[in-house]
Here is the input.
Amino acid sequence: MSFECELKRYAAYFRGWCQAFGEIDNEHEGANGITWLLAEDQVGLILPDQLRREVYRQILGTKAKTAVLTVSDSHFELGATAFDIDSHDVQKYLSVLLHTFTVSQALHLYLTYHLTYPSGTRFVTISTQAPLRIIYKEIEPMVIRIQ
Here is the structure.
């Protein structure tokens, strides 16, 4: 079964600005260095250094062309960039994403932070809630496909 929907993307008006992720219900660091965070109706990812710059450029760059993010049971694929994810993580976190698809008319992608993480740590967040308009501007949407 495959799902596809449009993600509204947001970039901060000023570099480094972002809103708080919210209360974290569950956290898990996979063997590949990706940390998964769950909160009510949102999923966050903390990416390892070797992936962060390329992923940020492709999904949050204001000049980036509309990209497609494909999530399967073994990897993420974003344009020409693909990286493996732990299969045991996938079932739990993809089920949250699928639930998020079903409860919301729109999904939103933006960076967030949390006070319990080191300064400068940012989460790629997919949420049913739009971010604060005072911090973020909407940029071109992208497509997310879950297989």
Summary: The chain has a mean pLDDT of 80.
